[in-house]
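Q: May I have one protein plus its fold?
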Amino acid sequence: ASVPAGCFCNAGYSGAVSAMTSSPFYTSSCSAVACPSNSAGASVPAGCFCNAGYSGAVSAMTSSPFYTSSCSAVACPAHSRGTSVPNGCSCKAGYSGLVSAITDS
């Protein structure tokens, strides 16, 4: 698209592009959006991954908030108790071991 016809920031970026009458004939305030909660990475366009103990994905979008995220806490596994892996799980009576959060990046 041409600037007068309307340009937009790429997916994962927030801001605006506006036409000007002097060189370079546009201004841009497009900036990379930070990774959302429960995820990590440099920025949404550079790639975000769910934190340890969370499952899902982060994808860049062209409309606010400029990403979709399905990162959600993983439930404690069988034979353990607790609300979720990020909040901590412990083995039930009669079982031994350790539940540790990992990333799948």
Q: What stands out?
A: DSSP finds no helices and twelve strands in the chain. The first strand starts at residue 13 and ends at 14.
